[in-house]
What does this fold into?
Amino acid sequence: MHDALHVVWASPTANRVVTQDGTWILAGTRPNRLAEQIETGADVDDIVEGFDADDAVAVRIGDDGRLDAYRSVTATRNVYVADVPDGPVVVADCFRNALAELPVEDRTVSQRAVADHLLFRNPIEPETYVEAIRGLEHGCHLTYDPATGDRQTRLVDRLDPDGETAVDTAPSRIHDVLTTVLDETLPDRRVRNMLSGGVDSTLLHTYLGDAPALVMATDSPEFASEVDAADRAVAMLDVPTDRHDVAESAFLSHLEASVDALGFPSHYNQTVLTDAVFRAAESGVYVNGEGADALFGLPAVKGARVADRLAPLFAAPGLTTLWRRGVASVLPRATHLPDIASWLDRPITDPSAFAQRLPFYTDPEVVAQCTDEATVESRFRRQTEYVQRRVERSSGGRFVDHAELGHLLSAFRHNAAEQWRQLGYVHGHELVAPFKTRRLTACALSVPPARRYVGGRGSFTPKHLLKSLLKRRLPAYPVRQPKGAGSLPVERYFEDGPLTNVFERYDPPEFVPSAMYEDHVEQFGPVTWNLITFAIWRDRVLQNPDLSRVEGTTVVEA
It folds into this structure.
């Protein structure tokens, strides 16, 4: 039991509101609206359950010592609660700050967190990378009374579609909602758009006038097409460019610095570039298009739609073999359609189901060698339950079942925007992610899922709704051109580049069995990148007794 609370807050834009019976700390897209609700003087539980929150967190320390913490259902902001031995309960919005409060000997990592890191890029709340730190789940209200030790978490916020939107009118509806979100969210400060040149970031820039485009670049040859795409988009938009080049030769040092800044092992290799650029960029507000694919169409959903249509063909004896042999020489990518059809036949919680494969790329069988099969299977079930508690899914056949769940898993479980937001705290920036807000999410859910992700009437174009809107706003943009995912060539970096000797500097994680070394330590395998980030984090952060708080952190004690 603890007799004190400390709120340790890193967000540079959080609001502090003092009322008759306590102090609130608010951070979100519309903090003034939240403050107005708080100042009505209503019961705390009623206030929290009635929050008009788009992407927000709220923490309250009452004069009676009670803690209330709230995280909206689509929040890219976090709330962490750390139980410090012989110390206070620490509530933080930044994982590094929570971890810094714990002695090294109390920073233990569970097998569940290891499995989540290897499978999904981040632990499933309330798990975090360290057992003594819990993460507040999306849409939940946490109450804690230090005097009695009573701690409860309730789900108070769920997602519902914003009516029903016909496919033909959906681009106009998206335009209206996106315009409102940006108008209400962007403050009167210097704004930059993190422009990759893809559909999402280019569409966002059409709403930002002559704001500068922040372009991240590296001299890796494999990344040249990404830089070219950004340059073409800048030319079409006719806006100034704030370009930052990161040398490939310095990748390992930038990776180390990004892990130091975050306080946890980043799974996204582009976070390395983001941290390097944020260190050099001018302080301000940065708009980011992360999350659009999860709402309107991940690239791999096209294959699922085609495979679903052709499933009767693959069911015929012998035709699958003929398909592979006949198609391979003409359309090599189409040879996998029978496999996709079989993944659509699996239960949605199966680790090999299409719904689970769509947003995640690590091989579950490999992860089971580091943990065990029961843990892997339970984590897939857990993340599915997490989503199903927060969104009422549609029904409409196996394609809809798998496609919608896969996209919702991506929306809730991919935390790139959360990572980049916490990097913003470290470097004095604010991140705005319009596609991760409640209003854009509800707008997307209002479109029937059979037509939400892939174009109909003979078209199999992913993200067709956003592409249609972009074509209206920027006709010169070639919406059908292929665009990479912005990923860095980490496999080549490992085999013959800046990561060649990384496991000489950092020992592989202890949970990796020696039988896996040949395929995942000595050469690049499905979990090698995850092992690299974990090893760097373990040595530089987890075991660092001098881990410091983020500069500029505010502390409120009770």
